[in-house]
UniProtKB/TrEMBL annotation:
PANTHER family: ALPHA-D-RIBOSE 1-METHYLPHOSPHONATE 5-TRIPHOSPHATE DIPHOSPHATASE (PTHR43135). It comes from the Bacteria. Residues 61-410 form the Amidohydrolase-related domain. InterPro entries: Amidohydro-rel, Metal-dep_hydrolase_composite, Metal_Hydrolase, Metallo-dep_Hydrolase, OTAase-like. Residues 1-22 are annotated as: Disordered. This is Amidohydrolase family protein. It comes from Nocardiopsis tropica. Pfam families: Amidohydro_1.
Length: 422
């Protein structure tokens, strides 16, 4: 799809929020040209030759677009096993709606860690789906009976295929894991995901189990490294987390039950942790209403209460923390609540870094997104209020996110007169 050129866009009267420095500078300007940030500064904007669209923000905050490091765009229900038998066209339509809603909340880049695939990413890139930039890993790799095996105990056989819309692929032994890893990489996956422990949404495993043998984990790590990609691992307990980190897993999803030994390994390996606290809060409140099976509901409390302790421990030690939501089905509209939850433990500046510069570094997009540096993609938010003073501003996007730009183009404007671009 051919993108038409547009004149440069000059924002004036902005409070420029730089998450790298943790500062907000009032009375500032920022110039966008050809979808990139072409300059910024304080005081009067420089004169520009030719046609320039000037937008006076009247003191509103201008900041980088947000990054959610853990989403499932295709998860139309909290019953993840339901997707195995559902129509791919229905799920694609659901994902398009889900991604568009995320964009309107201010998320201009997202990482799908099981379910989203190359076709969905291509649809966003070509403009068929108006959503955030999509970094995908394809299907998560799981042992039989692991967190990516969503068959109930009475279901026999594993008849899913690459074209089926499920979130996981079941494999056993290092050869099968290696083949499955290569299959995801063949489609252009930006990362690989492997199940290292039991989970909430899977029907037949325990939270405290370890999953995937060491040889299986090594095989996946080797394939990712050969392709200049990385492995992220689903894990809750310190035992499962530590095992993955020692074997070369670069990032851990959740980590609610880590201990001090885990923190030391995160620091030693410069690894990343993506807590997803809002999903447990919402599963506890609404999981049953949105299809979470009874067996899974019983697991929620196990991880709900410990998640905040894990976040505090990791933050105080300086672990690389990335924003993630992990919401399923109708609960996805609570995505931005993760900001308020993190704000109970972390200063606002650190929460903002987790959803911008830290996430960009994990995704291999440092200096490209999540920043106001010259030459970065012009993924920008116009926000009422100051998120550095009150992170709750971002927890209520319907009220406070005025305008969303991705690649220098306005993708969403709040529907009141005050939000209109001049």
């Amino acid at each position: 799809m051919t993108r038409q050129s547009q004149p440069p866009l000059l924002f004036t009267g902005a409070g420029l929020l730089d998450p790298e420095a943790g500062t907000r500078t009032p009375d500032s300007w920022l110039l966008v040209e050809d979808g990139l940030i072409a300059g910024s500064g304080r005081g009067p904007a420089p004169e520009k030759d030719g046609a320039v669209e000037v937008v006076d923000l009247g003191g509103a905050t201008l900041m980088p677009g947000l990054i959610d490091g853990h989403i499932h765009a295709t998860a139309f229900s909290a019953d993840l096993g339901a997707a195995m038998d559902h129509s791919p066209s229905y799920i694609a339509s659901y994902a398009a709606t889900s991604l568009n809603a995320m964009l309107k909340r201010g998320f201009t880049t997202v990482r799908d860690v099981a379910g989203g695939d190359w076709g969905l990413a291509l649809a966003v890139e070509e403009g068929l789906v108006d959503g955030p930039r999509l970094m995908f890993g394809g299907k998560a790799l799981s042992q039989t009976g692991g967190h990516g095996d969503f068959r109930g105990p009475g279901r026999q056989g594993n008849d899913t295929h690459a074209c089926c819309p499920g979130a996981g692929v079941v494999c056993d032994g290092p050869d099968e894991f290696r083949r499955a890893a290569r299959e995801q990489l063949r489609t252009g996956a930006h990362h690989l995901k492997i199940m290292l422990s039991g989970g909430v949404a899977s029907p037949t495993d325990r939270i405290d189990s370890t999953q995937s043998s060491e040889d299986e984990i090594r095989a996946v790590v080797e394939e990712a490294e050969a392709a200049n990609r990385y492995v992220t691992g689903h894990a809750y307990t310190a035992r499962a987390v530590n095992r993955g980190l020692r074997l070369g897993v670069r990032c851990i999803e959740h980590g609610n039950l880590i201990d001090q030994s885990s923190v030391e390994l995160f620091l030693e390996h410069d690894a990343f942790l993506v807590p997803t606290l809002v999903t447990y809060e919402e599963l506890s409140l609404q999981g049953a209403a949105y299809g979470l099976p009874a067996a899974s509901q019983e697991k929620v409390d196990t991880v709900l209460t410990r998640g905040m302790d894990a976040l505090r421990m990791a933050h105080e030690a300086g672990v690389n923390l990335v924003f993630g939501s992990d919401l399923l089905g109708g609960m996805q509209d609570r995505q931005s609540r993760e900001f308020a939850i993190r704000g109970r433990v972390q200063p606002a500046a650190d929460v903002l870094r987790s959803a911008t510069v830290n996430a960009a570094r994990l995704l291999g997009l440092e200096g490209v997104v999540g920043t106001l540096r010259d030459g970065a993609r012009a993924d920008l938010l116009v926000v009422d209020g100051d998120p550095l003073a009150d992170i709750g501003v971002l927890a209520d996007p319907e009220r406070n996110v005025r305008t969303v730009l991705r690649d220098g183009r306005v993708r969403h404007e709040r529907g009141d007169a005050d939000a209109a671009l001049a």
